Amino acid sequence: MKKLIIIFLLSFHYVAHSQNNNGYVVEYNLPITVEFEVYDTPLRINKVESQSQIDYSSIKGLLQSYLSANNINWAKSEYINKEEKITRDNEHFVAVKKSTINDYIQLESAYIFTYQNRQLAFVKYSFVFEKLPFPWTSLMILENKDNRWYISKLINQNQILLLLGNLSNSFLIDCFTGKSKDAEITKIISDTVINNKISIGRLGLQINKFDDRLKKKFYDSRITDDKADFRNGTINSEMKRYDVNILHPFLIEQFTIADYDKSEQNLTKNEITVNKYQKSPEAILLNPEVPIDLISKISINDNIKKYTLIKYRKGGEIQSIIIEEVNSNYQIAHGTPFDNFAQIITRYKTSFIKNLFDNVKDDYKGSDGGTNIDELFFYINKNEVVLAKYLDK
User: Fold this and answer.
1) How far, in Å, are 157, 265, 313, 333, 353 from residue 310 at the CA level?
2) How many Å apart are CA 169 and CA 263, to the nearest integer?
3) CA-CA distances (angstroms) from residue 22 to 344, 359, 368?
4) Which residue in 104, 160, 165 sits closest to 139, CA to CA?
5) CB contact at 8 A, 141 and 51
6) Euclidean distance between CA atoms 361 and 121, whole angstroms
7) Rounded to whole angstroms, how far apart are CA atoms 300 and 306?
8) Burial of 321 (0-12, 13-18, 19+ CB in 10 A)
9) How far is CA 349 from the centre of its chain?
10) Helix intervals (H) in 178-310
11) 117, 268, 272, 340 — which has fewest CB within 10 A?
């Protein structure tokens, strides 16, 4: 049994996947609807002997598979990426076969949402072992494809995973629904709400300020109390679902800022400029009669769409425009997640904006250390009097 414990502890954990970012590390807040599923007491899930007994249409089924897989092919089938490296080895599978009814997995909560046409779930679970005097609690990222749940990945979600893992379900329910009878939670909610939606980024900043008293009050009791009951899962535990609206931070795959060359001023639409920009977003701005000065360009790739935010001067007025690439063609984009950012690019010097990205403050720091451009927008508006010297006039 001791061997089983060691192998499980080595095998079952979540890995924080980082981004290979080209340019600045930047995220934005996207409004999403979340199905937050919570069990009053954990749902106990026991091992099965055959993969044919697994119902992969449910999160419970995937966790049961994760607990029960006793060969490499079974384990590999759990992953949406068939090239995923499996850390479970033959020694692990032998230990699984020797496990008893007193070794099981518990489903505790699921944060389910859709992002870029993918149905995803952040799942909190725990392993309970007969001879281990504490639980092994962790999180897993799952994805549903064709009515089947798989183990998947979503880069740079460390903050929300830590919140789901460390905080009690009752605290999260109050925060996500925006309703609480506790005065301290009510204050936290008021400090984290934007347009009637809880901001995960702002909630993370509040949690980071918790002292020992607040941790003991609002953390998962198993973290702060060695005597907390953890063998309390039942096979008939009931699930409660809360449909909530969340501002969830997502990382932009590519975000670069560049200044145009001084030669790209006083441009009009003519044979030379048409040839130069014929396959570029700048072509949209060219006019045969009214010259423009190109000032700076921000390239944004969110892994689904590609945008170019161009700052320019026309008729003596500084303006900006967001252009979207669609099937190798360019069109003016409206209602994008970056409209607020375009406002501050228009108003402030590009050198000042770059400096803010190079020297990130806690006021607009993203969940993984970079810049959250929506929080940057709020920071600049809040401090616009002090920052007036950086206006681009």
Assistant:
1) 29, 13, 10, 12, 14
2) 58
3) 22, 18, 15
4) 165
5) no
6) 31
7) 6
8) middle
9) 30
10) 183-192, 200-208, 212-218, 221-224, 271-277
11) 117
User: How many separate helices (H) and strands (E) can be counted in the chain?
Assistant: 14, 15
Q: Whole-angstrom Cα distance, residue 194 to residue 197?
A: 5
d(CA 60, CA 268): 62
74, 256, 264, 355 from 157: Cα distances, Å = 27, 21, 40, 25
* Residue 190 confidence (pLDDT): 96
Per DSSP, the three-state class of 222 is helix
Place of tokens 């807040």: 29
* Sites in the chain below the pLDDT cut of 50: 1-21
350: its two tokens: 């590009």
Q: Which residues, 6+ apart, have CB-to-CB distance to 3 below 8 Å?
A: 91, 95
Residues 208, 212, 217, CA angle at the centre, nearest 5°? 90
State the pLDDT at residue 22.
Answer: 52
Report the alpha-carbon distance of residue 154 to residue 173 in Å, rounded.
23
Contact in structure between 110 and 58 (CB atoms under 8 Å)? no
Q: Give the three-state DSSP class for 220.
A: coil
Cα 128 off chain centre by: 28
Report domain extents, the chain. 2-250, 254-390
d(CA 296, CA 349): 10
CA distance 165 to 125: 9
Q: List C-alpha distances in Å: 10 to 37, 89, 233.
A: 28, 11, 23
Predicted confidence at residue 304, as pLDDT, reads: 87
Q: What is the pLDDT of residue 132?
A: 76
H/E segment holding residue 26 = strand 26-45
Mapped onto helix, strand or coil, the DSSP state of residue 244 is strand
CB 225 within 8 A of CB 6: no
- Confidence at residue 18, expressed as pLDDT on a 0 to 100 scale: 37
φ, ψ of residue 13 in degrees (nearest 5): -165, 160
